[in-house]
Amino acid sequence: MEKQKIKITVREVAARAGVSTATVSRAFNHKGIVNPKTYQSIMEAATALDYKQETAGDISPNRAPVISYTNRNNSKKAVDKRLLIINIPAISNPFYTEIIKGIQSSALNHQFDFLLYSGHIKESSIDTFLELVDYVKAQGVILLNLISEELLARITEIIPVVQCCEYTQNEFASSVGINDFTSTQRAMDYFLSTGRKRIGFINGPLSYKFSQNRLQAYYKAMETAGIEVQSQWVIQLPDLSPDMAFSSVVKLLSMPDAPDCFFAVSDVLAAAAIRAAHYCRLKVPGDILVIGFDNTDISHLTTPSITTVNQPKFQLGFLACELLCEKIRNPESEVKHMLLNTELILRESTAVGAFTAKGY
Amino acid sequence: MEKQKIKITVREVAARAGVSTATVSRAFNHKGIVNPKTYQSIMEAATALDYKQETAGDISPNRAPVISYTNRNNSKKAVDKRLLIINIPAISNPFYTEIIKGIQSSALNHQFDFLLYSGHIKESSIDTFLELVDYVKAQGVILLNLISEELLARITEIIPVVQCCEYTQNEFASSVGINDFTSTQRAMDYFLSTGRKRIGFINGPLSYKFSQNRLQAYYKAMETAGIEVQSQWVIQLPDLSPDMAFSSVVKLLSMPDAPDCFFAVSDVLAAAAIRAAHYCRLKVPGDILVIGFDNTDISHLTTPSITTVNQPKFQLGFLACELLCEKIRNPESEVKHMLLNTELILRESTAVGAFTAKGY
User: What residues does the HTH lacI-type domain cover (chains A, B) (predicted)?
Assistant: First the structure.
């Protein structure tokens, strides 16, 4: 039988080497991305302490690597606080409010507090983020932002992660999202049912997974309907701000064969399209039909109110947090990818015929 | 000469007594609000360690108490991360986006990271908040939410605080806000200049300082103009959601002597008032004029676009963070209260005469 001794943790190695636990994890798992000098001192510290890294063979290759954060939790004297970090891309989008409420509801059940980290996690900011997660002793992370699989893998090395809304289907982290394909298909079917064929598409940056998926669904629907898409019908915006959408739609509406329908990937962009139509002396829905996405406040406050795809925002947040808490409780739990259903809410912006304000 | 010895910190007293540093600070500063048993064990720990509390006489009575967080910082082995906590009431309000950008810009200059704490700090949640601030080893707090002076005092006992937007004028924490009085006065002057007298006021909860201030300014302006306010002209909402505003305005517009102008304390409420007017077959601005507040996206996406009071949002956030960093660097720095100017942005909702869509 092996000699029984107190298990040396990543935290102790990190302390001896004078680096963060995140760096130690990276040194063991992705030697290439750690500064060689730092790598050297971590290895020296590990040797001096007789640190034993669990080998990859100990866990199923289909599961997320759980070594580091298991050690990390064990190494804490006492968890006097349970904390999650929620990464939101920007707090501008009212879309996130309901998602945060869903997360809050689940977190409360599991006695977790949470703090929001605002901003994109990129190659240039991943170290700052990992150090911060370590500094505040968080136990789990929910990402509302799409990041590369490589960066995602680095985060999951040191802490359990769940992806919410934006996700890639990988073996590192569970995800909860919506089915962009069927959601877009339903909006397109509605436009096509009115007999209109010149359907425009107002898209956000293609760095968003939802922009990629919805655009693909748009092309597929047009192809199935036997309509040839004119390239100018697809407005590809550099960001989700409404100003560019307004100008682009105004420009497009002055061209021959301009669209008589617009599908926008967010309500704010749909609102900008309605303003643009009004600016061009066109009526919505008389001349132009508009469908938005998200069912945020703005969709029922504009005139006309906006037909939109409702996302189950509360449930997205709630389920993401439930999956995260499960992963924290049981690091061996399976990685799951869940898609929730949406619904098309019909309002005035697609009410073909004379427009009358009917409240909301 | 006194015996030189290593100074015992609040953190060491807290560790020995098995409580948070926040509780130790409270025990020393506000004995009455600490559980007697806890108080007893803290005092025993302090005696055993020979902890010397700096006396109130050491600092000017006009300055915020700085004892605890000074000790707190000294007690850290090494500050390997600089972290601020920003308390936002809810992430729903797009108003906060620009404020957060301002904070970010200043924080970056001072090498601070920041995390957002979403929710109201109340009597029932203050302990959780203080423990969290301690747990994550934050060095400063910006409050975007109004809290009672008593709770504010408890936070400033352990960490430097700056109030942003919502504030009380006290000696504990600096503040940056806007002049609600002159902002409201300017909007009222505009309404009155059109010759209209039946001015309605759509207000948020009176728990917000801005709701109190703007309502006061409204009454003052009406009094100065010699107009008697009919009580039903003031719509007092239980929250800032637009649904209640819509119903209340619809109801009010069906009454005799209904207002022909509405001043709303936020753009979302102004948008709801416009929808309500449309629902009642009234034209904005033909029949009803509407002015909002904040100059958020929605104000230029509705039809008609909304005349609104622009707050210098970026500057509010930037200055709040500058004041906080100054306080962290120099705990003796003076408590300051700053008021920034606003401007009235004229759009279609007050363009008296025939309405024409003119873009934005």
Answer: 8-70
Kindly report the nearest CA distance between residue A298 and chain B, in angstroms: 7
CA distance A20 to chain B (A): 9
Please state which architecture CATH assigns to domain B10-53: Orthogonal Bundle (1.10)
Shortest distance between the Cα of A98 and any Cα of chain B, in A, equals: 8
Q: Do A357 and B278 touch (CB under 8 A)?
A: yes
Task: List Cβ neighbours of A85 (8 Å cut-off, separation of 6 or more).
Answer: A114, A115, A116, A117, A132, A133, A136, A138, A140, A141, A142, B115
Chain A residue nearest residue B93, CA to CA: A94
Tell me the nearest-neighbour CA distance from B158 into chain A, angstroms: 17
Query: In Å, how far from its chain's centre is CA B71?
Result: 28
CATH topology classification for B180-311+344-350:
Rossmann fold (3.40.50)
Nearest CB neighbour to B301, from listed A92, A118, A268: A268
Taking the CA of residue A237 and the nearest CA in chain B, the distance in Å comes to: 17
A-B CB pairs within 8 A amount to: 135
Which residue of chain A is at minimal alpha-carbon distance from B240?
A297
Mutate to test the interface with B, among A105, A246, A297, A308 (most CBs of B within 10 A): A297
Q: Report the residue of A101, A114, A126, A136 to disrupt the B interface, i.e. the one with the largest count of B CBs within 10 Å.
A: A136
- Residues facing residue B310 across a β-bridge: B294, B343
Q: Which residue has the tokens 């060689």?
A: A36
From first to last of the 360 residues of chain B, give the pLDDT tens digit: 444 445 676 777 777 887 766 667 667 655 555 666 777 888 888 888 877 664 433 333 333 333 333 333 343 344 468 999 999 986 667 788 889 999 999 999 999 999 999 988 999 999 999 999 999 999 999 999 889 999 999 999 999 999 999 898 889 899 999 999 999 999 999 999 999 999 999 999 998 889 999 999 999 999 999 999 999 999 999 988 899 999 999 999 999 999 999 999 999 999 999 999 999 999 999 999 999 999 988 999 999 999 999 999 999 999 999 999 999 999 999 999 999 999 999 999 999 854 343 433
CB contacts, 8 Å: A80 with chain B: 20, 131, 135
If we measure between CA atoms, which residue out of A218, A248, A225 comes closest to residue A236? A248
Q: CA-CA distance, B203 to B240, in Å (whole number)?
A: 8
Q: Are A234 and A215 in contact (CB under 8 A)?
A: yes
Burial class of B130 by CB neighbour count within 10 A (0 to 12, 13 to 18, 19+): buried
Query: Is A162 in a helix, a strand, or coil?
Result: strand
ipTM above 0.90, yes or no: no
Best to test chain A binding among B297, B314, B356, B358 (most A CBs inside 10 Å): B297
Taking CA atoms, what residue in A is nearest to B359?
A279
Torsion, Cα of A277, A280, A286, A292 (10° steps): -10
From start to end of chain A, where are the E strands? Answer: 83-88, 113-118, 140-143, 161-164, 174-178, 199-203, 234-236, 261-264, 289-294, 307-310, 337-340, 343-345
Q: Give me the residue spans of the domains in chain A.
A: 10-53, 74-178+313-341, 180-311+344-350
CATH architecture observed for domain B74-175+313-342: 3-Layer(aba) Sandwich (3.40)
Strand partners, A13: none
A359/B298 CB distance under 8 A:
no
Residues of chain B contacting residue A91, judged by C-beta atoms under 8 Å apart: 88, 91, 96-97, 100, 116
Pick the CATH number of A74-178+313-341 from 3.40.50.1460, 3.30.420.10, 3.40.50.2300, 3.30.1330.10: 3.40.50.2300
Domains B10-53 and B180-311+344-350 share a fold: no
Asked if A132 lies within 8 A of B305 by C-beta distance, the reply is no
Residue B245 contacts residue B202 (beta carbons within 8 Å): yes
